[in-house]
Every structure is written in C-alpha cells, then in structure tokens.
Amino acid sequence: MDINGLITQYGYLAVIIGSIAEGETITLLGGVAAHQGLLTLPLVIAAAAFGGMVGDQVLFFIGRYFGQSILARFPRYQDKIEQAQALIRRHPYLFVIGCRFMYGFRIVGPVIIGASRLTPGIFIALNIIGAIVWASLFVSLGYLGGEIIYPWLEYLDGHLKYAVWVIIALVFVIAIRLWFKSRNKKR
Fold first, then answer.
1. Which of 4, 69, 95, 145 is most buried, most CB within 10 Å of its CB?
2. CA 71, 76, 77 angle in degrees (round to 5)?
C-alpha cells in the first residue's frame, strides 16, 4: 500500500489522534492531504477540532482533580504558574482560547486552567470555540501550503522504501561497530 492509500484509509483517525497528542504538525499535514483530494477539508477541520478539544478537556480534568499536586512538583516554576493563574482569573476567555496557540503551553495550559478552578462549563464552551478556531487555522494553512509540500511528499513516497533500507543498513553497521567496541573493552 502506498502512502496515499494509508492517508485515505487512516487519515481522519490520524488527525484525531495527532491532535490529541501534539496537533500542529498533523493538522498541517491533514490540510495538505485535503488539498490533494485524499481527505475532505471540512472533515479534516472537524477531526482536528475534535481531537484538540478532547485532549485539552482530559488535561483540564486532570488539572481540576490532580493539578495542585502535579504543579507542586515544579517548585522552580511556581512564580510562572501563579502568574498564569492570575491571568486566568482576570481574562479566562482569552486565556482558555489563547493557550492552545502558545508554543510550549499546549499541554500544561489546560492543567493549570483546571487547577485554577475555572468552572467546567465555561472551559468546555471556550475549549470548543478555541479548538474550532485552532483547527480551522492550521488545517487551512496546510491546505494552502499543499502546493509547496505535495511535490516533496510525492518524492518522499517514491523514495521511502530506499530510505528505509538505508536506515536499516545504518542501524546494522552501528550495532556491529558498538558490538566490536564493547568486545574490545572487555579484553
């Protein structure tokens, strides 16, 4: 099966799972796949929004029930955590929607929001809005960038099997070299 077949078969599921875990890269690639006609643009946006919303919702509830003990494990960052919680109290709407766009804050942001005791009803509503805006933006960027990225993906697809064999050969050579080094050290 070629890479296009895999994208067509598992693309939406991959977008959902990728959006739960990390997000930006997979949503951009989902947009590229939609540009090439392998996936449907509105469904990619919906899958990315759903995955992003579910991931942040789970992290919010982790923060709500275990956040104080989790955040206490990072005494070095207590000042920043307190600043973030003060910002959440002052501007909860902007913070909840915006934390998904803050690099390095995507995972810890919902945990801090949950620990700040923001009500779940407000978080759910804002999380849905933020997920839709975020998914629309990144999937659209991937869709628009598809013209640039697609030729590279075709090249990669055509040469992927060769790259796999090269990687296997390199791993084999490195393993033999390490084995010889360890053997010589024992002597």
1. 95
2. 55
